[in-house]
């Protein structure tokens, strides 16, 4: 959904997309409360996903419009981290509601939150602090065709590959393979594994704030900061995978925390894209950037499963630590490819800025954020 959402975002603005996204999420959640078959449940979740696809990039576009360029990295990090904290905060109440009200009652009640948020968006959100927003008034078909032009900008690709290389490992570990790797592979208790996954989110908050400060102070080295975080992730993963037998607990914790740092690092991709993108193209650019990490995540999840199936055809109960180590090694393919592409488009991106905006590279070297022509500088 990210590419079409990016096109719609540049045409209609953040407020309209947030409203549409909330309507879809509320409808999907309400439908999920009453379904009685697996296909219907999948359809309801797909509707929720379609709505969710509209929310994050719309908020990132609001950040571009409402905040100073030098404030952007911190606000972007806080935006992403608040979403992660929301997921944790919702887990306890949802579990309680499921126990007290049952499936239908719990999900029907939670869908009503979407109505409250919809009213809040209608009452409070403006696309821009300026008299006129930066929405594009040309026809949607022409706007859709322009995605090719936005994709041709090396800054868009630099942001996408930065997102690609840094985000996937944390997503794969937290959403699917981390828990069985810890419990069945490394022999951790279920409570210990759950606690570590929760602690990873807390660490992501800390590392996100540090990353934001570094990005704001060193705009010329943003892509190198991403690569550095990825390398810091690869080193403890290598230690865990090459350790004879089960790695010590402290090594696993270091690996998990380094992996969690990849989430905040991926947010740098949006800041990179903003340096290269005019305001009326930010929706399409951010949509393309957001595709990177999730594409890598889905491919990695699938390939880990394929390797496990090939190494241990007996199914989940037959997986050993060696099987998990072999399967988790799939990540190196994506890390290596992502680093190469990030550095490749860093070089191309800097050449593009130097050619199109003379003096911009020198400005970045001096530690001053480059303000793309057309982006407001006075802030709110």
UniProtKB/TrEMBL annotation:
CDD domains: MFS. It comes from the Bacteria. PROSITE patterns: MFS. It holds the Pfam family MFS_1. The chain crosses the membrane at residues 12-35, 47-69, 105-125, 158-179, 191-212, 224-243, 249-273, 285-306, 326-345. Residues 1-346 form the Major facilitator superfamily (MFS) profile domain. Keywords: Cell membrane, Membrane, Transmembrane, Transmembrane helix. It is found in: Cell membrane. It is a multi-pass membrane protein. This is MFS transporter. It comes from Nocardioides furvisabuli.
């Amino acid at each position: 959904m990210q590419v079409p959402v990016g096109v719609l975002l540049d045409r209609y603005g953040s407020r309209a997309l947030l409203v549409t996204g909330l309507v879809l999420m509320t409808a999907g959640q309400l439908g999920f409360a009453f379904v009685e078959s697996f296909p219907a449940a999948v359809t309801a979740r797909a509707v929720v996903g379609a709505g969710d696809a509209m929310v994050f990039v719309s908020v990132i576009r609001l950040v571009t419009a409402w905040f100073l360029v030098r404030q952007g990295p911190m606000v972007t990090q806080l935006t992403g981290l608040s979403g992660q904290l929301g997921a944790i905060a919702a887990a306890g109440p949802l579990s309680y509601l499921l126990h007290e009200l049952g499936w239908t009652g719990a999900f029907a009640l939670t869908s009503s939150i979407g109505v409250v948020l919809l009213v809040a968006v209608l009452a409070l959100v403006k696309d821009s602090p300026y008299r006129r927003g930066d929405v594009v008034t040309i026809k949607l078909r022409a706007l859709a065709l322009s995605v090719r032009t936005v994709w041709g900008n090396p800054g868009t690709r630099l942001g996408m590959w930065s997102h690609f290389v840094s985000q996937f490992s944390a997503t794969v570990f937290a959403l699917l393979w981390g828990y069985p790797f810890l419990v069945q592979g490394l022999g951790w208790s279920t409570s210990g594994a759950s606690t570590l996954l929760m602690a990873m989110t807390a660490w992501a908050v800390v590392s996100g704030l540090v990353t934001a400060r570094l990005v704001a102070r060193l705009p010329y080295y943003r892509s190198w900061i991403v690569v550095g975080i990825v390398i810091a992730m690869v080193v403890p993963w290598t230690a865990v995978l090459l350790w004879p037998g089960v790695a010590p607990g402290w090594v696993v914790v270091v690996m998990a925390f380094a992996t969690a740092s990849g989430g905040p690092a991926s947010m740098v991709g949006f800041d990179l894209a903003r340096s290269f993108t005019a305001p009326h193209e930010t929706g399409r650019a951010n949509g393309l950037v957001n595709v990177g990490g999730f594409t890598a995540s889905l491919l990695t999840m699938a390939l880990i499963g394929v390797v496990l199936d090939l190494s241990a055809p007996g199914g989940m109960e037959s997986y050993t630590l060696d099987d998990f180590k072999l399967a988790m090694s799939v990540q190196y393919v994506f890390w290596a490819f992502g680093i190469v592409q990030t550095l490749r488009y860093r070089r191309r991106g800097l050449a593009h800025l130097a050619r199109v905006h003379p003096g911009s590279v020198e400005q970045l070297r001096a530690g001053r954020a480059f303000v793309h022509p057309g982006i407001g500088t006075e802030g709110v």
